Amino acid sequence: MSESRLAINKSRHMFWQDGQLIYNGKYKIEKHLGGSGFAVTYQAMHTKLNRRVVIKTFSSGR
């Protein structure tokens, strides 16, 4: 899967896909946790520290 590439879901919002590497491979997306009109939240793995993190980013709809 390409790094930092976004997909578009049925509601036309962009999101990262499970297994995707982002931020120059620093994080690997594990799953989408939820979202609202303003933000989207993901569970990810910090690839160098081998530690789970939560990433919250602005929704593409805003």
Describe this structure in words.
This protein has strands at residues 7-8, 14-15, 21-22, 27-35, 39-46, 51-58. The N and C termini lie far apart (26 Å). 0% of the residues lie in helices and 50% in strands. The mean pLDDT is 82. Strands 3-4-5-6 form a four-stranded antiparallel sheet, with no helix packed on it. It has a two-stranded antiparallel sheet with strand order 1-2. The protein is mostly beta strands. The radius of gyration is 11 Å and the shape is elongated.
- The best one-word shape is elongated
Number of strands: 6
Uncertain runs are none
Sketch the topology as an H/E string, one letter per element. Answer: EEEEEE
Strand content: over 45%
Mean pLDDT across every amino acid position: 82
CA radius of gyration:
11 Å
The biggest beta sheet reads: 4 strands, antiparallel
Counting DSSP H or I runs of 4 or more residues, the number of helices is 0
Oligomer designation: single chain
Please give the share of residues in helix.
Answer: under 10%
Strand order of the largest sheet: 3-4-5-6
The end-to-end distance, rounded to whole angstroms, is 26 Å
Going by helix content, strand content and strand pairing, the class is: mainly beta
